[in-house]
Structures are given as C-alpha cells and as structure tokens.
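Fold this complex.
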Amino acid sequence: MIYTNTLSLRHPRGTAEQCSSSGIHTVCDTVTLRNSSVFNTDSCLRRNDTRLFLKYILPFLLLFLWVSPAMASGDEIDLPQEHWSFDGAFGTYDKAALQRGLKVYQNVCAACHSLKRVHYRNLSDLGYNEEQIKTIAREYTVPDLPNDEGEVLDRSARPSDPFVSPYPNDQAAKYANNGAFPPDLSLITKARAGGADYIYALMTGYHDAPEGTELLAGQYWNQYISGHVIAMPSPLSEGLVSYEDGSPETIDQYSKDVAHFLTWAAEPEMEHRKRMGIKVVLYLIVFAGVMYAVKKKIWANVRKP
Amino acid sequence: MASGQREKFENPVIEWVDSRLPVFTMMQKEYGVFPTPKNFNYFWNFGAIAMFMLVTMILSGIILAMHYTAHNMHAFDSVERIMRDVNYGWLIRYIHSNGASFFFIAVYIHIFRGIYYGSYKRPRELLWIFGVLIFLLMMATAFMGYVLPWGQMSFWGAQVITNFFSAIPWVGEDIVLWLRGGFAIDNPTLNRFFSLHYLLPFVIVGVVFLHIWALHVTGSNNPEGIEPKTEKDTLPFHPYYTMKDTFGILVFVAIYAIFVFFFPNALGHPDNYIPADPMVTPAHIVPEWYFLPFYAILRAFTFGVNIYILAGLGLTVVALLPLFTKKTAKEISLPVMSFLMALAGVLLLLGYFSQLELESGAKALSLPLSTAFVDAKLCGVLAMFGAIAVLFVLPFLDTHPVRSARYRPWFKLGVLLLVVDVVILTVCGAKPAEGFWVPLSQVSMLYYMGFFMMGIPFLSKFEPIKDLPKSIHQSVLGGERA
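Structure:
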C-alpha cells in the first residue's frame, strides 16, 4: 500500500518542502529567531506544544478566571455556605429533615407560596407510606371534573393530585400580597444562585434596616436579597412549628429543614441521579483504562524504526 | 463512490451485498485501510468526539421531542414533566442540555487544532469552510434549542438575539417582525424555533458528510504540517486510530458524565428555571457560555463609526494593501506601512475618544463632526458576525507556506494569545457591560480582529520559514532534520 497524494502545498514561494530544502528565507531572517531564548531551542519547537500551553498559557487563564469574580461589580452578595447531607457525589437527602421541612412548608410557606409541580404521591420519597400520603392529601380540597349535570363540585385531594395552591390564580395571589407575587417554590432552589444556601440565608437574613434606609409599607430588609429590600415579611419565628422528633424549634433549624425540603422538591431525582452517576463514571473510567491498554499495545511497534 | 476495482469478500452475505452496492468496500477503503499520518497527537481526537456528540444530541433530542410541547403556555410545564414524571426523563434532558456545552467544547478544541496546525491551508480550504459552516449552524441550532424550555433566559435571550436584526438599516424592523412571527416573542416564535431546532441538526449531518468527504480526498493534516510522502509516514485508520479515538471519546464522555450526573445545572443559568414572563426583565441577560466571546464583541461597541473612525479604517486598508497585492516581503516598505498604521491609529483613537462619554456627561474629546453615522448597535452586530465571517476567509488570509505552528514561532505566539484573548472575551461577555469590563472587551475585540485581519496577512509575508523535517517518519524518530 503506497500512499499517493496528488495534491501538495503550492505557494508563490514554492512548496513548504521546497522551501525547507532550498533554504529560502525572508528579510527577517532566522538570525533574530535563533537568538530569541523562548523559541530558539528545537526541543521547544518540536513535540511540546502541550507543555508550552500548560506552562505559559494555562496558569494565566486560571489566574484570570480566579480573579474575575472578585472584579465583578459590587452588587453580588456572598451567601454563607452551609453543610448539607445532599452535598457531594455520595450525598443523600435526610428523610427526617425532609419531613420536618414539609411541615414547615405546610404550616408557614404554603400560606402564600404554591408548590404545584410536586404531587402528593411524590411524598413517598420522604419515607411516608401509601396510607400516610392519602391522609396528608385528604386534608386539601380540589375542584373535581364537571359531573353529569355539568356542575363542578369540590372533592378531597388524592395522592395523584399536585400540591394544592393557596390562591386560585396568579392575580388573586398578587392581590392578596400588595401586588407582589409569591413565586411557586417547586423549582426555587434551582432558580436561585446558591440553591439551598440561598433559602437558608434568606430565611435567617432578616434584620432591622440600617440607619438611613427608608422602607415603604410592606417592605422588609434582608441581608441576602439583591437590593436588600423584600416584600415578604420574616416568615419564621421561634416555636412557630412544633416538631415531634425533638429537633430544636428555632429559626435556624426551620430554615435548614425547609431549604432541605425545597431542594428535594426541585430535584427529586437527585439521589437516583448520583447513585447512577457513580456507576456510569466508574464504568467509563474502567473502559477508558482498558482502551488505553489496547491502544498502547496496538501502537507498541509504531515508533520503532 | 468506491465503484472501481473491488476485492472479493469471503463472507458470502457480505459479498452478495457488496457486489451489488459496495458499501463494505467503501468502509474498508475509507475507515479500514485509509492511510492516516502516524504522528497525530490527542488534539486529533476531537473530530471523532464532535461526531459522537452530534449523534448523542440527535438521539437524546428525538426522545425529548416525543415528550415536549411546543406551545408558550405548556412548554415550561412539559419540560418539568419530562424532569419529574417521564421515566429517566431527567437523564435524557440533562444529557441533552449538557451535551450542547460539551459539543461546543469539542468543537472549539477542534477549531483551535485546525488553526494551530494550519489545517485550513491548501489543499484543505474547502474542508475548513465546511467546518466553519457546521459551527455557524451549530450556533443557530443551540440558540433556538435554548429558547425551547421557555424560561426567563430563553425568552429574553430570544428577545435580544432577534433584536440584533433591527440594527439593519431600513428593513431591520421588518426582518425582526418576520423572524418573530409577530410583534413580540410569542407562541409563533416558539413554534418556528422548535421546527428549525429539529431540522438544522440534520442539515449539520449533511454538511458533516461533506466535511468528511473533503477530508478523505485530501487526507488529514498532522502536527508537523507536512504531507505524508511514503508508506512509512502513515498507518491504516483501523485499528490504530479507531482504538485511539475510542479511548479519547471515553475520557471525554467520562468528564461529560460527571457534569450530567453531578453538576447538571452548573453550565446553565438559574433564571431559566423561572417560567418566561414578558413583564419581568432579568437583571442581566446572559447567553449560554459558548456564545459569550461573541456577545462580548457585540457589546464592545459603545461607539459607532464617525468620520475619524472611517478615515482610520480607510487608512488601515491602504496601509495593509501591500500585504495582499505585493508578492514578497522585500517589495513591501515597512517604514511606510508603520507610518500609515500609526496615523490610522491616531485617527481611530480620536474617533473613539470623541464619542467616549465621561461621567460628567461631556465627551472625553471635543471634536467637530464627531457624531457617529453608523450607530454602535449596527457596528456591534457587524463585528459579531464578522468574528465568525473572518473564519470563513482564514485560508485566504494566511498565505504562509508553513502549516504547523511548531515551525512558525511568531504565529504560535499569536495563536496562543488568541486563546487567552477568547477566554478574556468569554469572561467579559458574562459580566455586566460596565466599568473596567468595557475597555477590556474593546481591547480583546481589537486583538481578535487584528490577529485575523492584520496579524495573519503580515506574518504570511514576514515570518521566516523554518526548516521542516524531511518526513513525518523522520520527525517521529526524532532524527536529523533537513
């Protein structure tokens, strides 16, 4: 098998190969180059393109990427970083925290915020059995489908229903809250930078407004919201929700539990995803290792003369 | 194709098919024994990786389309239904959404490889142009795909991008109306974007076919940038490169999988988990990361073209004209060129500072006739499209006979700085267009354009031609050079 390539690199100054053999040079001859320390050595010109990149370019890039957030305009707020059981590749939800968080949501948040993308049936993830879920759902009423006579009657909710919203529609929600719309919480930890940390920070970030800050009626000061003004009054207070498992009934604990619960509400697939991910990544690493060995064996005699 | 001489296959079924339609002969020729330079480094894996990503995107996309509803009232909900209620819907969607990012990572590395080792040069110009066309189609496809979940960034991104076209004089507003299918981004916009998002990937497949066809006519370039001469310089594609590509794809996919399973939303914007709301504008509208360099170039234009800038640009063209008309470096007068360029630089700076507004509201430099007649918005849009257009003509801007940056130290420095420059542009694109970020993106934009439009033509004439190895085989052995 002989490789014949009829096309070659043509140029007014001849082909590259011709240039190299006949030694044609331009006005800026190699003299300046040969003396330059960075590019002179043949070893530098030869096989270490990657090394040159790693040595000179990569550190600069990393430095720039590292400092660039610090150079950002001043309106970004640092959220305190909490430790969550669902952090990391092996992280899982804490079922007890989820159950307590559900209770905080139901007793506090649900007064204004819907959770319409979560269904009662999903509560099995929290460790509830079918009967318990039915009991939880039955506490709520939903409009039924029109009956034979066309009337719409209410019925109690079933596990197959989504969480019942506090207001019949968005207009009603706004009207009841001075024109501020309480957002649906189903995706809140994914829809805010910081996720669970953001929820925890917001819940614990209520303070008196600093001197000189004028707040209008229906405005509250919060350390962690952009602009520090929020239309939601501090929702939590000590002892507001009673816990059955003896956990402290503090704002701090409530905030952590509800942030935990809302993370689950936004990413109910997370545990499954991470469990699967570990298997998939391990499989790919082993397979890649095998293929590296195969490649090495096949290529073993290529570089020999 | 492959209709010439044909060798018999031993397997009777294969032989039966092949004698009627020689697909096996073609596969054998193009992927079996296909002579491939033996000195590829791992940068040469990214073509196969990009191909793998294209297939992944099409397959996961087809499955998503089975569950997705292209209607502005239902799109967001249907995506959330996929995430929560469709079996493994979250997996398919995360594969698709992160896949877009990883497809771009692969393609950007592939493009870098092409520039660094001069793969765009004769005789591979058309191969390169098909590649840039694929890149352009990918950008259109990715943009329209990002609109489909109908989150806040989808909606406002569509608003910003379609609005670009309003910068076109006279017909701009009508074009925007036509693109959107109405007076605002609405259901007709979503419907047509879905239709095109489903169509364009198959157009990409078609252009990829042409790209690979052209590749198999010229053969691959290689890190030395010299053509294979004898059998010693090449290896059959199979098993050498099939196995190497498989290894490369697996490493890439492992990193991709880490994102899909452990950081599925790290490359996205949180605002896109808020349903689209035409009444609420996000604080910062940011495109996906892979568009940020181009977005930064768009926003770098806080100024338009006034008489000084026009004169400066005109003089630049005059100064650089010898690079395109004269044959050799000796015929070009460097002092004259430097003088004209310096003069052009002064004019451009005058034009820039006469439009720069100080905090007091006054201009930094008060000059007569400093009003821009081509406004900043149009300049930004032209520069952004120009940044891609310049890639199409790259093979004709670079006439230096040496391909690989290994033997072009000046060019090598320029390309590596271009990488740095594009990263800076990426960061600038992610930041609000204010303060320090504006001049930084302006300087970076200038380098990007200057490298392609001035640097490369200049180096084509003035960069010395280094000695090249006699053959690939010799360079692999590390033997003496010519």
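Residues 214 and 221 of chain A are 10 Å apart (CA to CA).
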